Amino acid sequence: MAECKEIMYFDLRTVHDHFDRSLLDEDDIDIRAYLEAYNELYKFFQLMGSVFSFVSSDLKQKIEILQGLIDKDQENYVTVKKMIEYEKENNLLRKSDFVNGARTLLRLHRGLDFISEFLRQLGELSDSDNTSTCCKDAYNKTLAKHHPWLIRKAAIVAMYTMPSREMLFKKVCGDNVQKNVDALPKMLEITSHVITRTHTVYEVHELHALP
């Protein structure tokens, strides 16, 4: 008889703890801890299924690229600042045959902005409220600015199938809905610090417009 595969539900406290650990002194970010938090967030998209396919596959690919860079070079791919400085000094940002970490992390940063805004609005809904409206609003404020028309159209159409807040939390959190709802404010607070710090680092190096 085949063994039943255990369902790995989403845990906001895990996201909080990893992002908290990623915030280093001197306004820097530990990349490995950042990715560990993102891997937990990725569960959210997996559990939601095809509705978030417009972003989930891309995020997974970016996580794997950065993890690969860390595995190959644990000296220069330790923090966000060190990674960017290393890639700038070695002219890797414009190298056509190299998938650089700065561009890859920028894509994750934009995705995190969307996730954070969506979860923030989700926390303000009542259990019976539909989640599609706040998801569309969060998307239009964040990721939509960086997506071509075709992806934007497909994403908005997919969002029409989203459930109520109560059903969404049950789908991604299982029996631990209240625990995750209670953890949401602190998780959003620490995530906001991560987003702001990442944004500042890219601003200092003038890399927000990386193609």
UniProtKB/TrEMBL annotation:
GO CC field: cytosol; membrane
Superkingdom of the organism of origin: Eukaryota
Domain Glycolipid transfer protein, first and last residues per copy: 29-173
GO terms of molecular function: ceramide 1-phosphate binding; ceramide 1-phosphate transfer activity
InterPro entries linked to this entry: GLTP_sf, Glycolipid_transfer_prot_dom
Pfam families: GLTP
Biological process terms in GO annotation: negative regulation of interleukin-1 beta production
Gene3D superfamilies (UniProt xref): Glycolipid transfer protein
Family affiliation: Belongs to the GLTP family.
Name this polypeptide is given: Glycolipid transfer protein domain-containing protein
Species this protein is from: Nasonia vitripennis
Encoding gene, per UniProt annotation: 100678115
